[in-house]
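Exercise 7. Given the components listed, write out the predicted structure of the assembled complex. Treat all entries as one system.
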Amino acid sequence: MADEILVVAESRNQQLAPSTAEVVTAAQKLAADTGAELRLLALEGPAEDLCAALAGFQSAGVLRARHEALAAYSPEAYTQALVQVLSRRQPRYVLFAHSYRTRDFAPRLATRMGRAFISDVTAVRVENGRTIASRPMFEGRLAADTVFLGEPPYFLSVQIGVFRGDQAARAAAPVAVSDEGVTPAAGPGKTEAPFQEAKHAVDLTQAAVIVAVGRGIKEAKNLELAQKLAAALGGEIAASRPICDSGWLPMDRQVGSSGQTVAPKLYVAVGVSGAIQHLVGMKGSRAVVAINKDPEAPIFEVADVGAVGDLFEIVPALTAEIEKLRQG
Amino acid sequence: MKILVCLKQVPAKDAPVKVASDGANAGKWIRDDVGYETNEPDAYALEEALRQKEAHGGEVVALTVGPARAAQVLREALAKGADRAVHVLGDDLAALDSYAAAEAISRAIAGQGFDLIFTGLQSADFGFGQTGVVLAELLGIPHSTIIMQVEPIAGGVRVKRELEGGFFQFQELPTPAVLTIQSGINKLRYATLMGIKQAKSKPLAQVTAADLGVTPALNRQAIQRLYVPVKTKKTEMLTGAAAQVAGQLAARLKNDLRVI
Ligand SMILES: Cc1cc2nc3c(=O)[nH]c(=O)nc-3n(C[C@H](O)[C@H](O)[C@H](O)COP(=O)(O)OP(=O)(O)OC[C@H]3O[C@@H](n4cnc5c(N)ncnc54)[C@H](O)[C@@H]3O)c2cc1C
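Answer.
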């Protein structure tokens, strides 16, 4: 087995997805800790070139696996191509971003190779020769140190937003690119191009103040409480996914990985637990205020000010206070 | 269409999270006051299966892998309209990783010829998000993940996959296939009194995991230690009477954040 760490790059619209730089940051750290050599692997269609961008990162080499069957993503073609590359190279670690695409093929790949895939990892360390990956459990309310029981390669997906892509070490001169020949067959079925549902009627990205409600609001009729608070603050109302899933607010008011990404001056989270899929959509807010009855709720980890208590008492009182201050 | 729905029983959303700090159980979840419920995306998967059956005919079979308490999710599935249920039973099954759970499912349904297998896209407790895809690989059939719409077509299904940032994508797959279902794909129904009554006479088969050769020894990954995440951010926490908290908060919004 080679002492190698492979990062599998992800493409989006023929370009390197921003999450790849985050994985490179994580992998460079792991390389420094273990002494393993880091290489960056791109799966490409004939007309694609991810390698030029990958060559800008500090690494021991960039690997290009190019084939017609990889032009459009399919889990089977990705699995076959990666099995071919990994069987030849026998790396110790294989790292991905924990993206929708990785979720789609990595469990299949790891299973085909008879290995474990530890998903959604927030930190990796090696202790006494043992690799320990930390990952959230129970929607971030707990964390678990998780270990691989079998042989390498160890498959890991890195949670998006944990490592900073802009901290990935850059190469002084472009790193050499070499070809990894692959002959995957396209999987069964047919995949169409991605599309966006209707154009967003509300553009939350422009809002200076956002009041976001979560499941703590309990019933649709209680939304009024949050709406009044939003009105008092001159802000927009937004929500966590379950609120939009229930049809209480339209989907274009959803914040998070499958909704909008916002960065207002003030984000008030009301009865939102702070699952990672929500946090990635609002972490960039200038200031975050969280109102939640559970002092351990993960939302407090990103909040500047946290109010612990019953939102049904705090929110109306806060609205009244704000109105008083505005008049006074 | 013959549809299998895989359901997991998970700790309820508001379950207290306490981890033992010492003794033989150090680093393990103290589950004394924990209530349980059906994993949310799995409930949506069941609903989708029932809707497919109502629209196109067929059979819906609910399956769970878990200890005796997990039978509750099957009783609920039967009450909502599943035709029969399979419980893969064992005391230590809460410790299975996705791979071992998928092995248990694939062995339990061997030879049953399902056209579609639905799972939730991930569980609320472990959150591996892998069981459905691993199952597809073990069965040697195609899969699609994070599904928001299912429509039968000749020889297969047309599905709408959710992608990141509000994007979607249509995909056509031959059946049999595994689909991992996303919350919000449909509106959940409640069990009716009639349904609950009828459920009592529906078949609920039990098979022990040991008989299938499945134990946590199959696991390819293991949790070494659980812990409550350490807070790294210095959050100013306001506690006390609601009126007082609201007053302090409003003052902060005015003076520090200058939004009032
Ligand atoms: C692939 C994928 C994509 C996803 N995309 C998104 C996304 O884009 N956006 C998103 O938000 N989620 C998304 N999710 C779902 C996400 O994982 C969480 O399930 C969701 O964010 C939880 O919503 P919530 O915080 O409103 O509900 P819960 O987690 O149920 O939290 C409710 C909170 O309210 C508090 N509460 C209850 N009662 C009161 C009260 N009286 N007073 C004060 N507080 C109270 C509770 O303490 C709790 O913290 C996605 C999940 C997956 C798997």
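Discussion: Chain B has one domain: 2-218. The two ends of chain B are 59 Å apart (CA to CA).
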